[in-house]
Structure formats: C-alpha cells, structure tokens
Write a structure and sequence with these properties.
Layout lengths: L1 E5 L3 H12 L3 E6 L5 H8 L6 E4 H6 L3 E4 L6 H8 L1 H4 L3 E4 L4 E2 L7 E2 L7 H8 L4 E5 L5 H5 L9 E6 L2 H14 L3 E4 L6 H5 L2 H11 L11
Parallel strand pairs: 1-2, 1-4, 2-3, 4-5, 5-8, 9-10
Antiparallel strand pairs: 6-7, 8-9
The structure holds NADP nicotinamide-adenine-dinucleotide phosphate.
C-alpha cells in the first residue's frame, strides 16, 4: 500500500521503517521537502521509500500515519492539506502532551475531549483511527520484545477503517487488538499517558506495555 508517515521523530522513524520492511511504499513527510532526518531515513531504506512535505506525502497515500508532536498536530495536518486527507484513513498516534511546565508533562486536552476527536472534528471527511499511542515507539512495531502478550487498543468512527488498521497492527505483531468503539474512546487512550510516564520512571525502561486480562 501507499502510506504516508507524517513525522520525522522516533515514532515516524519506527513506523516508517516497519512499513517499508513489510513491503509498503512509504513517504515520510516533514515541514520541509529536504528534511535531513527524512533524507537519512530514505537513504537507509529499500527501493520505494521517499520523502516530501506533509502535503506531498499525504497526496499519494491511501493511509496517513500521524506521528507529530501533539500540540502541533493540527498545524501539521493543515499543512498536509484538507483535500489530500479527504476520504483517507488517518492513524493518530499523537499524544496531547504539554511540556510547558517541565517534566512530567500534563495533558492539554482530556476528560471530556481528546486530540483524536479534535482531529476528527477538524477533518470530518477523513476517517481517524487512534491507536499505538499507549506504548513506546520500539514496542509499537515489535510488541514481541516485551515478554507476555500485550494488548493494543484502537478506536474510530468507521468500522472499515478500523478493520484496515487492525490488519496492519497484526502485521506488526499485535495479536490482542481491542476495539474500544468510536473516536471518543481516544479520551481514555490518551489518559493512559500519566500512568505510562510513572511506570517508565518506576521500571527504568520504556520496553513495557499493557495487558487486559479477562
Ligand atoms: N516517542 C514515543 O515513543 C511515543 C510513544 C507514543 C506516542 N508518541 C507520540 O507520537 C508523536 C511523535 O512523537 P516523536 O517523539 O516521534 O516526535 P516529536 O518530536 O513529538 O514530533 C516530531 C514531529 O513534529 C513535527 N513538528 C514540530 N513542530 C512542528 C510545527 N510547528 N508544525 C508542524 N509540525 C511540527 C516535526 O516536523 P519536522 O519533521 O518538520 O521537524 C516532526 O516531524 C507525539 O505526539 C508523541 O506524543 C510518542
């Protein structure tokens, strides 16, 4: 599939690398068409990998992964362009973290709204699926690195979009994928972050995840 990965940070790099290794045609998007991190990533990939602006990456993609800083995600999507996102599945991995008061960050939206819902409201013609935001970038694409079978959540308003992303998650190695319902479930998924941050401190590693026992 043709897939855009918007973001050149740890998450963009992990997701784009995994997708390219699985044989997808991946374009990594950034604000600049000549972003150095994206160029470095392309140089290390098999044929078919490319880079571009957020808009160039989104234009030709069937699926768009959102791997941008939470507080600027809507800016990045506006740069990607409404027309380039219309009718597409947007996989939202971003967390609404506010680092303005230092560590640990707080959530700039929570409880009765979420970043996932803000994205869906701002781009009503797109199909937003929230997932993967509850684990570290390495665990996202290699859940087997953590002993024990982890659970992953996903939510969104469109069943077909969720089915497509469930398949991609399974190709990443996720076996226990739990559909939490419409995009308002992003409130709960984003609220996992405060406990994730505390566990990171307590365990001294980011290589962990959550398992729903039932
Ligand atoms: N790190 C993790 O393990 C992890 C785990 C779960 C969820 N997340 C979430 O995943 C997202 C990505 O995290 P990350 O650590 O990989 O990267 P990040 O540093 O949070 O974000 C990097 C991206 O944000 C873009 N950006 C920065 N300022 C911008 C602006 N003013 N306008 C538009 N775009 C801007 C950058 O664009 P340029 O490329 O143009 O510089 C870059 O592509 C975040 O929302 C984070 O909370 C991270």
């Amino acid at each position: 599939m043709k897939i855009a990965v918007l973001g050149t940070g740890m998450v963009g790099e992990s997701i784009a690398t995994k997708l390219a290794a699985l044989g997808h045609e991946v374009c990594m998007g950034a604000r600049s068409a000549t972003n150095e991190k994206a160029a470095d990533w392309v140089a290390r990939q098999p044929k078919g990998a490319s880079q571009g602006t957020f808009a160039e990456a989104a234009r030709h993609a069937e699926i768009v992964f959102i791997c941008t800083r939470g507080d600027v995600t809507l800016d990045a999507l506006n740069l990607a362009g409404r027309d380039n996102l219309a009718g597409k599945v947007l996989v939202d991995i971003a967390n609404p973290l506010d680092f303005s008061k230092g560590m640990p960050p707080t959530l700039f939206v929570s409880n009765d709204d979420s970043l996932g819902e803000r994205i869906q409201r701002a781009f009503p013609d797109a199909q937003v699926v929230k997932t993967l935001n509850i684990v570290n970038a390495d665990v996202m694409v290699n859940p087997g690195q953590v002993s024990g079978e982890l659970s992953m959540f996903l939510c969104g308003n469109v069943a077909e979009a969720k089915a497509k992303i469930r398949q991609l998650l399974e190709s990443f190695g996720w076996k226990d994928v739990l559909d939490l319902g419409d995009i308002s479930a992003a409130r709960g998924m984003e609220s996992v972050l405060p406990i994730w941050l505390r566990l990171w401190q307590a365990l001294g590693t980011a290589s962990f995840g959550f398992k729903v026992v039932r």
